[in-house]
Structure formats: C-alpha cells, structure tokens
Write a structure and sequence with these properties.
Blueprint lengths: L7 H17 L5 H8 L4 H13 L4 E2 L5 E2 L2 H12 L4 E2 L2 E2 L9 E2 L4 E2 L1 H4 L6 E5 L15 E5 L8 E6 L2 E10 L2 E5 L8 E3 L7 E12 L2 E4 L6
Antiparallel strand pairs: 1-2, 3-6, 4-5, 7-8, 8-13, 9-10, 9-13, 10-11, 11-12, 13-14
Length: 219
C-alpha cells in the first residue's frame, strides 16, 4: 500500500481502525474512534472515513457500511484470517506433578467452544439499556436460536423494532425489562402476543476484553 496517498493524520486513523478490526473482527464504532483520537465531534470521524473512501483505502458495501477493498483486506488482515483455532500444545497434570509433555494435539475450534454453533448468531448493540449487566454500546451479543425462559435476556422483535431486554411472561402480558433504571419497562398486552417474535436467547457478549459468557444470574 502506498502510504504517500494519505496525510499523517489519515494514516494514523487508518492504522487504528485496521488494527481494531484485526483484534476484534469488527470495525470500531464512531464513539470508540472519537474517544481514541479525542475528537470533540463525530463529524471528524465522518470526514476521515470520507477521505479514505475517496482515496480508495476503504469502500462502501451494499449495506452502506465501509470495508477494505479485497486486495487490501488480504494484505492487511491475512494474519487474522489464518487463525482457525487455538493450538493445543501438550499435556498438563491436574494431580501430582509430572514431567511436561509437549505435543501438537490439534486446535480448539469454534465448534469445540460452541457445540451448538449452527444455532448461534450475533448482533451489535446500539445503546445503553443493558449496561447494568455489563452490555454496552458497540458490544457484540451472541444469541442462540432456542427457547427463552422467564427472566432470560433475549432479543425481541416487536412492532417492527428490535430490542435486547430481560423477558418476563405473566398473566398481564409480556414485560421487557431493561438493565438500566433510566429506561422504563415495555409492556406487551396478551392480545398482541402474536406480534412479538423472540429472535434469540442471550448467551454472552464480546467486547475489548474478549468473550463474556452469560451467567445464570443474568441469563
């Protein structure tokens, strides 16, 4: 890539979003970029992205999100893309001390970590209504296409809108409870139950610290 096409500040901006993508496999939010560079306005983020689009360092996908051109994606993200599992490097005793045994025992794959991988999908969070269970704006929530029990956190589609909430069923209808006292409960009356679709059950979320599995207390 010819760095001469970018100003110093544009190169720093580009390097940051690419490194973020390599580490977390998602692009940083406008808020995260603004905080990193101490921008006072999200317009500064927009201006930098527009400059990178104009110079061909980024492209717009069909969903209007930005991305890297194919040739740059291969060069810049190939180290990440080649990671297909966690290496198992040997044996370790869980009883008396034993001689260390090093061996190539394969890799831990996503299928190993998540036996029901075919039932999983993720959504990116927008907003702060679940902050009291440590789910914040920009996090990725991992959801499972399975039954949601009373009190579970789940993704709900209602009246054409989606929301992540604690779900409670009762004689008076469906109650969607936020994990933030600044947000009121959403009550769905029994006669419109058929308009509600539970998209998935929350099983964990991904943030800068990695994967945070749901506990029985919040799930």
């Amino acid at each position: 890539m010819d760095n001469a096409h970018l100003t110093r500040k544009q190169q720093e901006f580009f390097n940051y979003i690419v490194e973020y993508k390599k580490e977390y496999d998602v692009w940083p939010t406008y808020r995260e970029i603004a905080e990193h560079f101490d921008y006072r306005s999200p317009n500064s983020v927009t201006q930098n992205i527009q400059a990178l689009l104009k110079k061909g360092f980024l492209i717009k996908r069909n969903d209007e999100e930005y991305d890297l051109p194919k040739e740059k994606k291969k060069n810049l993200l190939e180290d990440y893309d080649d990671q297909d599992g966690i290496p198992i490097r040997g044996l370790i005793a869980a009883g008396y001390l034993q001689e260390a045994v090093e061996a190539d025992l394969g890799k831990i794959t996503l299928s190993s970590l998540f036996p029901n991988l075919d039932q999983l999908f993720a959504l990116r969070v927008s907003g702060f209504s679940m902050k009291d269970v440590d789910i914040y704006d920009g996090d990725l929530v991992v959801l499972m296409d399975t039954d949601v029990k009373n009190g579970d956190i789940g993704a709900v589609l209602y009246n054409g809108e989606t929301s992540l909430k604690k779900i409670y069923w009762g004689s008076n209808g469906l109650r969607l409870e936020a994990a933030n006292e600044s947000y009121d409960d959403i009550i769905v009356e029994p006669d419109v139950f058929e308009e509600v679709r539970i998209i998935g059950k929350y099983i964990g979320h991904i943030n800068r610290q990695g994967f945070q599995r749901a506990t029985s207390k919040v799930a």
